[in-house]
Each structure stands twice: as structure tokens, then as C-alpha cells.
Amino acid sequence: GAVVSQHPSWVICKSGTSVKIECRSLDFQATTMFWYRQFPKQSLMLMATSNEGSKATYEQGVEKDKFLINHASLTLSTLTVTSAHPEDSSFYICSAPGQSEETQYFGPGTRLLVL
Amino acid sequence: GEDVEQSLFLSVREGDSSVINCTYTDSSSTYLYWYKQEPGAGLQLLTYIFSNMDMKQDQRLTVLLNKKDKHLSLRIADTQTGDSAIYFCAETLWDDKIIFGKGTRLHILP
User: Fold this and answer.
1) Residue B86 φ then ψ, to 5°
2) What tens digit of pLDDT does each residue of A16-71 get?
3) Strands (E), B1-110
4) Cα B54 from Cα B62, distance rounded (Å)
5) What is the pLDDT of residues B21-51, one digit of tens each?
6) Which residues pair with A68 in a beta bridge?
7) Chain B interface, best mutation among A4, A33, A43, by max B CB count within 10 A
8) In whole angstroms, what is the distance from residue A27 CA to residue A30 CA?
9) From the CA of B103, how many Å to the nearest CA of chain A?
10) Distances (CA, A) of B7 to A39, A41, A63, A101, B40
11) How many CB atoms lie within 10 A of CB B41?
């Protein structure tokens, strides 16, 4: 079946550096992908909608200059956390709707730890 | 392995109650969630329940958790056309990993 992959699954970085997270749809194309973050012991929070060929749509309160999203192709969206700080440490998950939009495929998530 | 299952479709008449069911396999879950996804939009948190609770009510929403049977349900009272959406059940495990079900599409009949 359809699969969404994320890379890397784990990343540790120093404060002030930028980190890029990739989300790929395998075996299907996704014109839209969603990016979420999850704080420890909390629920998932939608950050933005990534649109192939156009700008991402950010949820209220999410800094678009901080979290850069690029939907480079129909199978790849990237989230770059710029100038990362410890408070950006979180679990980032992407998802992509299936062909019928009746389903949503989730990536396995990327755990980011900023020291 | 970890798995969350839910039925794919549910049709309910407007004004009736909707009950969406979910089963999970991992007993180490800490929180269980219900998310709502409207067409073309991302998931939005609807409600959640901590694993040591068995019921939570929030206006028209009632969440029931049977930990022994690993069964979670979401009841929507007085279902309205605006409730038409896909509802995802999810659990977080002891290591904060989140597992989602495939979603239940709720269709409202007039």
C-alpha cells in the first residue's frame, strides 16, 4: 500500500543551526502534504499545509520564516527548521492524502533534539 | 506490533448520535486522541483522554475508553451536517511515538 517516509528519523543539532526534514510519498503522488509537530505527552498540532507548486499555508501562530516548507515535487516536501533552538525540540510528522482523499498516510515522524 | 484500527465508513442521520469505534493493540498507550479532518484540510484535535480515565465528556462529544478491551469510542450527540468529516483515532505510547488509525469517514444523511 501507499507509504510515506521521513528522513531523518532522529536528529540532534546545536542551537543556531538549521535542520532539514524530508517527507516523501512512495508509490503515489501528493500535491498536498501536511506538517505537524508533537510536544512530549501532548497531541499533534498542525503547522502548515505544503502545496506542490505554490507557497505553503501556515497555521496561525506558526512562524513561516522559522519553519521553511518547500514542496519540491509531487513526492517530496521538506521542512527546514532555521536557527533551531531548544524549544524547537519536538516530534515532527508529515502526512499525505491518498488518491481518493478518503485516507491519510502518515510518515513515521522525525524526532528533533536541539542542544 | 503497534496497530490502531477503525472502520472506514459510517452513515448517520442528521440529529441522531454517531458512534465511531477504534481498537488498539499496545497497552503502553498514555494518551488516546480523536482528530477531525475536513475536506482538503489537515487534522485538528477534537478531544483526548488519558489512559487512566474511562470517560470524558465535552459538550456534544463523549469519549469512552475500555482499557481491558483496548477499545476507544467517540460519540457525537445530535449529529449535524458540519460533523461530516474523517475522524482519526490515535494513541501515543510510552516513548511519545504516535500511532494513527486509517480514519472513519462520517457521512450525514438528511
Assistant:
1) -105, 135
2) 999 999 999 998 899 999 999 987 667 788 899 999 988 999 999 999 999 999 99
3) 4-6, 9-13, 18-24, 31-37, 43-50, 55-58, 61-66, 71-76, 85-92, 98-100, 104-109
4) 11
5) 999 988 787 889 999 988 877 888 899 898 8
6) A80
7) A43
8) 10
9) 7
10) 28, 26, 36, 16, 21
11) 14
Contacts of A113 in chain B (CB under 8 A): none
Task: Read off the C-alpha cell for A106.
Answer: 502518515
Q: Mutate which of B37, B48, B52, B93 to test chain A, going by most A C-beta atoms within 10 A?
A: B37
10 Å Cβ neighbour count for A9?
Answer: 12
Which residues in chain B are closer than 8 Å to A44, comparing Cβ atoms? 33, 35, 43, 45, 90, 98
Q: Are A85 and A63 in contact (CB under 8 A)?
A: no
Cβ neighbours of A13 (radius 10 Å): 16
CB contact under 8 A, A49 and B42: yes
* pLDDT at A1 (0 to 100): 62
Tell me if B41 and A93 make a contact (CB, 8 A cut-off).
no
Three cell numbers, residue B40: 482538503
Task: Report how far residue B66's alpha carbon sits from residue B55's, in angstroms, rounded to the nearest whole number.
Answer: 9
Residue A85 grid coordinates: 533552538
